[in-house]
Amino acid sequence: MDSLIQALEAFYQKVDENVHKLEELNRARLHCKAGCADCCLDGITVFEAEAAYIRHKAESVLKEKPHPTGKCAFLDEDDRCRIYAFRPYVCRTQGLPLRWFEYNESGIKVEYRDICPLNEVGPELQWMDEKYFWEIGPAEQELAELQQKFKSGRLKRVPLRELFYK
Q: For the chain, which end, N or C, has fewer CB atoms within 10 Å of the first or last residue's CB respectively?
């Protein structure tokens, strides 16, 4: 378990460093702050490795009651994250301008861009340089590799709400 914790903490540190750089670049358009829980949806799932990390780091929170259904189970009554220091990968990149690639029916690689509607101020995403975006794919691949290494090669996902003790 210790090696999983260390590997995830190194992964999160790298993610957080890159997120911080993007937050600085996008400072004028980002309106995310504590208490804004528009992206904190119910039904979010994480790999078993991240679930184990949260269980290890936030055991006392897991003994409390989850937030009512409809928003993330880890929000408190003020819509603040009770596991912010131990939040999963998906929560660390919320609000940033995102870009990813998919192949269309013709096999042509197409770039997509998106951002939280609360952060749509400023230049249109299509005209922005790629340095302003979090690219979806590389970090997810690294996280999947950690999952496979520490959880017997399975890519099973766990709903965050299921982490609470019943």
A: C
Residues lower than pLDDT 50 in the chain = none
Whole-angstrom CA distances from 78 to 35, 39, 67, 68, 71 are: 6, 15, 10, 12, 12
Nearest to 122 by CA among 94, 101, 97, 98: 97
Amino acid 86: pLDDT: 96
Q: Locate 76 and state its tokens.
A: 């408190």
36: exposed, middle or buried (C-beta count within 10 Å: 0-12, 13-18, 19+)? middle
Domain positions in the chain are 2-93+136-163
What is the token pair recorded at 92?
């660390």
pLDDT at 153 (0 to 100): 74
The pLDDT value given to residue 34: 75
Tell me the three state secondary structure of residue 101. strand
Those residues whose C-beta lies under 8 Å from the C-beta of residue 93, and which sit 6 or more positions away, are 15, 19, 134, 139
Interstrand relation of 98-103 and 134-135 (parallel, antiparallel or unpaired)? parallel
Per-residue pLDDT tens digits for 95-108: 999 999 999 999 99
